[in-house]
Design goal:
Helix 1 (7-17) packs across helix 8, helix 3 (54-63) packs across helix 8 (152-168) and helix 5 (81-93) packs parallel to helix 6 (107-115). The chain has 314 residues and is of the alpha/beta class. The chain is built from 13 helices and 10 strands. 45% of the residues lie in helices and 15% in strands. Strand 7 (174-178), helix 9 (183-195) and strand 8 form a beta-alpha-beta unit. It is globular and about 55 Å long.
Amino acid sequence: MRGVPRIAEVHAAHGRIRGVIHRTPVMTCATLDALSGHQLFFKCENLQRVGAFKFRGASNAVMSLSEADAARGVCTHSSGNHAQALARAARDRGIRAWIVMPSNAPAIKRDAVEGYGATVISCEPTLEARETTASAIQADTGAHFIHPYDDPHVIAGQGTAAVELLDQVDRLDAIVAPIGGGGLMSGTCIAAAAIRPNVRLIGAEPVGADDAARSLEAERLIPQTAPDTICDGLLTSLSELTWSILSSHLETIVRVGDDQVMAAMTLLWERAKCIVEPSSATVLAAVLSDVCPLPRGSRIGLILTGGNVARPAG
């Protein structure tokens, strides 16, 4: 598959990976409904295998490889969740995986990658270092590179979360998902536009890594530079592929500060009993924000992207 995946590819991905992924539940919380003034439906990808939606895209990409390509193994660069997902997907297929991780990646995510049997290579915490190191490994090993989001098979796999959400909840007015590299939101856009075209599509992004919001406002792709946010899963730039999809479908992107993210994460932990990482909490923070564009009483699907966060000390 090359270029922008179509809904047919998303459905094909769902059929391909259905036997290895979890059909994650949709959670509701009366307290959060009251606080937000909306009806909120949380798609719990924090309960997905490896603790994140990334397992969907990684599994689809690995399962789509020919036998010859799979025999060479796979490699990628990732701060954590895609790393874990690809390591597990590779182990499921019985092939090797080399994962480049920035030196500041959370220890809980690095430990999980190594636990799945992948080889971890550390690099400086810059996109240039990640890409250069991954290219060197690919050249040395011949491994097939699977990008965290700039890959049609990955995008199609991520779109299966929205396919399920739209099947699980009737009459959604909007879907809100976080934006880092844009793979999940791209897959969500493709699925929603085909299955329920009237659904409003809204991104959530931290103020300290708001390249997608700036790009949407400027109507051109603006690269991420010097991101500064607690949301470690949302530090990367959009690609030309994900930008082409998001710019055609997104209504808006709501920026949220780290203090808003932490407040939303605390609400999800304490009131909904739902363990999520900061990147996941951006969606609730966006809905609770004063600039959320949705009218009171809206039925909103929120994709909780992951739950890989360290246990608090003490």
